[in-house]
Design brief:
By secondary structure, the protein is of the alpha+beta class. It has nine helices and four strands; from the N terminus they run E-H-E-H-H-H-H-H-H-H-E-E-H. The protein is 54% helix and 10% strand. A four-stranded mixed sheet has the order 2-1-3-4. Strand 1, helix 1 and strand 2 form a beta-alpha-beta unit. The two termini are 26 Å apart.
């Protein structure tokens, strides 16, 4: 049976950016199915114990800087540690991913464009022109996709993602969920791959 991974993330997460390409490589290696499930952390954090970056203790913020440097070295990707447009509202970009998936399209190329825009190119992923430009570059009908992204249907899907994230529970971005078992953080990809390779049953809280 082919594993399905629910991929909870947001485009303004540097950790999701750092893990995206390795995750998609893992997916390809094992023939996995991915459900892209962008989620609003503003809706999830209050329910699962997370805090926005600015509200975290100084010690945690300092450690984050060190971890980012380590993982940039490890992944070998460009990353602006203090991007010009951060924090930015990822809602429209997140919903475009859902609109593409709803239309049977693979959201991966667009997600990569949004990650790069935020974390490598100092572009504003909240800007409709940036989003539309990425869609056009990918050969999509930007007006139609963005209209769909702003529809009540996609809004309902986006809201449901947040409710499901709270129920699982998801505690940050990215989080990869296999059979209800969350793997939080791009630094858990090796463990996720071990689970996929072994085919073991999902672990549950004790």
């Amino acid at each position: 049976m082919t594993d399905t991974i629910d991929y909870f993330y947001t485009h303004v997460s540097p950790w999701a950016y750092l893990g995206h390409a390795p995750f998609m490589d893992l997916v390809a290696r094992h023939g996995l199915t991915v459900r892209f499930r962008p989620v609003s952390l503003a809706d999830v954090f209050p329910e699962t114990g997370g805090l926005p970056l600015a509200k975290r203790a100084p010690a945690r913020q300092a450690y984050r800087w060190m971890e980012l440097q380590r993982w940039v070295d490890k992944r070998g990707v460009p990353l602006n540690f203090k991007p010009a447009f951060f924090p930015a509202d990822p809602t429209l970009a997140d919903r475009v991913v859902l609109a593409l998936a709803e239309d049977g399209k693979n959201p991966d190329p667009f997600a990569r464009r949004m990650f790069a825009a935020c974390w490598a190119e100092d572009r504003n992923v909240a800007d409709p022109d940036v989003i539309a430009g990425a869609l056009r570059d990918l050969g999509e009908d930007a007006d139609a996709v963005m209209q769909s992204a702003q529809s009540d249907t996609i809004g309902s899907v986006y809201a449901q993602n947040a409710r499901d994230a709270v129920d699982i529970p998801i505690i940050g971005s990215p989080c990869y969920v296999r059979d209800g078992e969350p793997f939080w953080g791009q630094d858990r990809l090796d463990i996720l791959e071990d689970a996929v390779r072994s085919g073991r049953p999902a672990y549950r809280p004790l």
